[in-house]
Design brief:
Layout: H1 6-20, H2 28-70, H3 77-86, H4 88-132
Helix pairs in contact: 1-4, 2-3, 2-4
Length: 133
């Protein structure tokens, strides 16, 4: 299973979202017009990671099933689960799952943030209109 460098990815995403939500008076209208594109980008990343999570969960199940099939004696479910917690391949997969779940949780919050960005831009534009009249 490929190793996901999720720690660096989290830092990259933090920097990107900071740029995506940055708004100033001069670029407010442009930012408001980009909101659907920004939201699409982050929702796409969220869904990509959810697909990766599903694949990792399938790989974990497959690794545990292989352990059961390769065992010279039949293993109970509890014994198999205990053996899986000590298997290096399963441990690596589980670590990737844990990191990916954190990224997914972060991206779900980013998606909510980008949804509110529409209203934030609208409110700022309305405020500018009030200030200029």
């Amino acid at each position: 299973m490929e190793s996901l460098n999720l720690d660096n990815l989290f830092e990259i995403y933090q920097k990107e979202i900071a740029e995506d939500i940055k708004v100033d008076e001069l670029s407010l209208k442009d930012k408001a017009m980009l909101v659907p594109t920004i939201k699409h980008k982050w929702v796409g990343r969220l869904m990509t990671h959810k697909v990766q999570l599903r694949k990792l969960n399938e790989a974990k199940k497959k690794a545990i099933k292989n352990m059961a099939n390769n065992s010279p004696i039949p293993l109970s479910k509890a014994t198999l689960e205990q053996a899986a917690t000590n298997d290096s391949n399963v441990i690596k997969i589980q670590e990737s799952i844990d990191r990916l779940e954190i990224i997914i949780e972060y991206l779900e919050k980013v998606e909510k943030l980008t949804t509110s960005l529409t209203w934030d831009c609208k409110n700022l534009i309305d405020l500018q209109k009030l200030e200029t009249t």
